[in-house]
Design a protein that fits this description.
The complex is a heterodimer of chains A (about 375) and B (about 325). By secondary structure, chain A is α+β, with helices and mostly antiparallel strands. Chain A contains eleven helices and 17 strands. Helix content of chain A is about 35%, strand content about 25%. Chain A starts with a helix and ends in a 7-residue tail after the last helix. In chain B, a hairpin with a 2-residue loop joins strand 10 and strand 11. Chain B is about 40% helix and about 20% strand. Chain B is built from eleven helices and twelve strands. Chain B is globular and about 60 Å long. The chains are: A alpha+beta (about 375), B alpha/beta (about 325).
């Protein structure tokens, strides 16, 4: 721990030194959050972030082929490349009013925590370094990624990491909440949709029923799949859509599911079971049922003993932040899957809501940004290099 | 400058002034100081956002604005506390220029801003804008910095109604189209070139603002246009399209009271210019109907539309700004 702090002296006074940038961070957050950006429609946020990169004087700023906002700040020696990423897309429809309210101690609005704040912070990192008079030896690659969520399946990051010409040595995923979040491994995940379409009456065999009833049979079969405690494995059914009216039997029904496990083998087994269930129910009930597994993330991560994790904990401790370790659904897996040590960090406290606007607290934000700078400094000083 | 020429040459879009670096350089070259005034009354839902965005973008990042002040009419909510927490100077209107008496209203706050703020250019922006953006300020400052003949810039907002051909009807809100534009067409035809005479966002040079009276209530925007026009003509004006503005919509009944105040302000000017005479003093009571449990009742509203004199006639103002000018000269 002392090695880390020796390398990056005065972490504890960073929040105070960053205070002149507080309103800029908040303004970035408000303006980004007010731009609707459902997955696949992030263009306006990309332009906003790129404008910030250009105004900060980054020598390289532009969109890559996938549409990610990419900024590059060369280091003095370029010995390492640290990539910071915040996803720009949101699960909130563009039809929702994206108005943001600024109160004395918090900011409220759809998607402020996930992930307008993360994007706001990534776009202001060059200004923070300038404010603090920091010149890194490492290159800093800043990414506002697109197509991260839902069916996007981290498409932007997958493309960028697969095509970037510069090897990435470390990754930091930036999320709005919660401050203290320290993710360094990903749980294996499979996401998919099962849909069920009833065939026209003339081609139905005996026993054909409404789509919603058949899909219900499929759900019952799914619930009979046994999942072990160890390795931890879980099947969730998160979405179910069907029907238009009380007196019309639906001819289409669909559900969305997610499987999580610490074992990739378990995920493969469950996927096979699900495919078998859907095939059998399709035949038995004379419907067109299909399964589409569109998202797959392998389990994995770096060990707790990795110097990057130890350094993050040291920085957090210096700033009075309590680490909260867990798995991450963020872009972390894209780094981990490519053997790049990476963590996911949160910027402030707040609440992420699905049915009402999120909120984030203003006060802890500067500590969250200071934590990010501290980790960058630790990496830059070489204390996070793996064995 | 005739109306058509004015419309063509003095109507801008905020994007004409996107180059903030140029604006700041030119402002500094001209030695101008610019103040932003946000008049407020119970605006806790929007004031924080306005200050955060405008301060961050126009004071911290690009030093276009030298001071941001909230002049409050005595809000009972958290407006003043929130404004102060994000770095605005906050003034309670009633605590200043006490010797001139106390009146409440937006116009009162705008008038006192001339005393409390020190800018050569004062930008007034309402505090209830949901979609606040730096364009609301730099779009108004731009014409003043670009053209020394321009003394007053008025905002207008595009209201894209459904249209299928090249001609698109554009205009103001209900009070503008039903009341103000017909009146301007009758009495001040040049001012009909101003697309939204009642918009709440405008910027002016101190040298003209200090010379005109300020109605404390609904009539302040109309009065400013007529009085500046009377002194300097249409050539002193410009207008800027700030795209859309999202704010609370007022009910028609409230707009009726606004219209009453505007009418009093306008008739006052017509009398002053001896263009229209009234045998009696115009009443200050506006009556509207209420229906309670099927019974109709008349509700009376006192809308006096008191007018503050040109602030250059106030001794404290002269003392403050004369001494400033003397110090600068010395």
């Amino acid at each position: 721990m002392s090695e880390v702090l020796d390398a990056i002296d005065s972490v504890s006074d960073l929040p105070e030194r960053l205070a002149p940038l507080r309103e800029e961070i908040l303004a970035n957050l408000v303006m980004l959050a007010q731009i609707p950006a459902p997955t696949g429609r992030e263009q306006e946020r990309v332009e906003y972030v790129l404008n910030r990169f250009v105004e900060s004087g980054l020598p390289e700023a532009g969109a890559d082929e996938a549409g990610n906002a990419v900024g590059f700040l060369p280091g003095q020696t370029g010995a390492r490349t640290i990539m910071l990423v915040a996803h720009l897309d949101s699960i909130i429809s563009h039809r929702v009013d994206h108005n943001v309210t600024v109160e004395a101690n918090r900011i409220l609005g759809p998607g402020v925590s996930d992930n307008a704040l993360g994007a706001a912070v990534v776009s202001i990192i060059p200004a923070c370094l300038e404010q603090l008079g920091i010149q890194l030896n490492s290159n800093l690659s800043l990414i506002g990624s697109v197509s991260s969520l839902e069916r996007g399946n981290h498409g932007g990051m997958k493309f960028h990491l697969s095509h970037t010409q510069r090897p990435v040595d470390f990754g930091i995923c930036v999320e709005g909440v919660q401050l203290g979040r320290l993710n360094y491994f990903s749980i294996g995940t499979l996401r998919g949709d099962i849909s069920c379409d009833v065939k026209p009456i003339q081609s139905r065999s005996f026993g054909s029923e409404s789509a919603i009833v058949v899909l219900n049979h499929i759900v019952n079969q799914m619930l009979q799949i046994e999942t072990p405690q160890r390795p931890f494995t879980k099947i969730s059914i998160g979405k179910f859509h069907s029907g238009m009216s009380y007196d019309v039997e639906p001819d289409h029904a669909e559900l969305g599911f997610e499987v999580n496990s610490h074992s990739d083998r378990m995920i493969v087994q469950i996927q096979q079971r699900l495919e078998n269930i859907v095939a059998e129910m399709s035949a038995r009930h004379a419907v067109d049922a299909s399964i589409d597994c569109f998202f797959r993330r392998d389990a994995g991560g770096i060990p707790f003993s990795h110097p990057l994790v130890k350094s993050v904990i040291s920085v957090m401790s210096e700033l009075g932040i309590e680490p909260d370790q867990g798995h991450s659904p963020s872009e972390l897996s894209e780094f981990i899957g490519r053997g790049i040590p990476a963590v996911t960090l949160g910027i402030t406290q707040g609440e992420k809501n699905k049915k009402k606007p999120d909120h984030v607290l203003i006060d802890p934000m500067l500590r969250g940004v200071a934590q990010l700078i501290g980790v960058i400094l630790a990496i830059d000083a070489g204390v996070c290099d793996g064995p | 400058m005739d109306r058509d020429q004015w419309l063509a040459e003095r109507t801008f879009h905020h994007s004409n002034f996107w180059d903030m670096k140029w604006l700041v350089e030119e402002k500094e070259r001209q030695g101008l100081k610019i103040s932003l005034c946000l008049p407020s009354y119970n605006e806790e839902a929007t004031i924080g956002k306005e200050i955060v965005i405008l301060k961050s973008e126009l004071k911290d990042r690009y030093p276009l604005i030298d001071e941001i002040a909230v002049i409050d009419s005595g809000s009972s909510d958290q407006t003043r506390e929130i404004a102060a927490s994000f770095g605005a100077d906050v003034y309670l209107a009633e605590e200043h220029l006490r010797e001139t008496g106390d009146h409440r209203g937006k116009g009162e706050n705008l008038w006192k801003a001339l005393y409390l703020l020190s800018g050569d250019i004062i930008v007034y922006v309402d505090s209830d804008i949901n979609n606040i953006h730096p364009r609301f300020v730099y779009g108004l400052i731009g014409p003043l910095i670009r053209d020394p003949e321009v003394c007053y810039v008025k905002a207008f907002y595009d209201r894209p109604l459904a249209f299928s051909q090249g001609v698109r009807p554009t205009g103001g809100g209900r009070v503008t189209e039903i009341l103000v534009r017909p009146l301007f067409s009758l009495f001040y035809p040049d001012l009909t070139a101003i697309i939204q005479p009642l918009s709440g966002e405008y910027a002016g040079r101190r040298e003209i603002l200090e010379q005109i009276p300020f109605p404390v209530g609904y009539g302040v925007e109309t009065a400013m246009l007529i009085d500046i026009y009377e002194k300097l003509g249409l050539g002193a004006f410009a207008q800027t399209d700030l795209d859309s503005r999202v704010h609370r919509n007022q009910e028609t009944i409230a707009l009726g009271r606004m219209a009453f105040g505007i009418l009093r302000t306008l008739f006052h000017r017509l009398s002053r210019q001896q263009r229209s005479q009234f045998a009696e003093e115009l009443p200050q009571i506006m009556r509207q109907h209420n229906c309670v449990d099927g019974e109709f009742e008349l509700v009376e509203y006192l809308i006096e539309e008191f007018e503050r004199p040109p602030i250059v006639e106030i001794e404290s103002y002269v003392d403050k700004f004369k001494s400033q000018q003397q110090q600068q000269t010395a």
